[in-house]
Amino acid sequence: MIRHVVFFSVRDAADLDRVEAGLKLLESNPHAARLAVRRNLRRDGLSGEVDLVVYGEFDDEAALAAYKAHPTYEQSIAVVRPLRDLRIAADFELD
Predict the structure, then answer these.
(1) 7 forms bridges with which residues in the sheet?
(2) What is the H or E stretch that residue 3 is in?
(3) Which is nearest to 83 in space by CA: 14, 36, 2?
(4) What residues are paired with 53 via a beta bridge?
(5) Is the alpha carbon torsion for 44, 49, 52, 58 positive or negative?
(6) pLDDT for 7-59, tens place per residue?
(7) φ, ψ (nearest 5 deg) of residue 52
(8) pLDDT score recorded for residue 42
(9) Which DSSP string corresponds to 34-83?
(10) Are 54 and 4 in contact (CB under 8 A)?
(11) 3 state SS of 33
(12) Comparing C-alpha atoms, which of 67, 57, 64, 53 is closest to residue 19?
């Protein structure tokens, strides 16, 4: 199982809803075993830069690659990329 976590910040707070909607397009991508887009709760007091988090679970590398090749991924990028500032992604496997 591969975990895929991506952190986003928006350039302008007025665009937060648009970026969130663009990322939520990914939730309909059929290649993720689980995928959620959520706003950062900022409960630790230190994560002010991160506005949104994408969390995905994929059965294997092939499923992750298929997710990135799916049209919803490109649709999401078209909406989000012009409005985002920070994007940090990490993938890791669980035993």
Answers:
(1) 53, 88
(2) strand 2-10
(3) 14
(4) 7, 38
(5) negative
(6) 999 999 999 999 999 999 999 999 999 999 999 988 776 667 899 999 999 99
(7) -135, 150
(8) 80
(9) EEEEEE---TTSS-TT--EEEEEEESSHHHHHHHHHSHHHHHHHHHHTTT
(10) yes
(11) coil
(12) 53
CA gap 30, 3 in Å, rounded: 16
Mean pLDDT of 67-80: 98
If you count them, how many residues does the chain have? 95
Number of other residues whose CB lies within 10 A of the CB of residue 57: 16
In the structure encoding, which two tokens stand for residue 33, read together? 């075993």
**Burial bucket for residue 80 (CB in 10 Å: 0-12, 13-18, 19+):** buried
pLDDT in tens, 62-73: 999 999 999 999
Token pair 């409960």 is at which residue? 43
The SS3 of residue 27 is helix
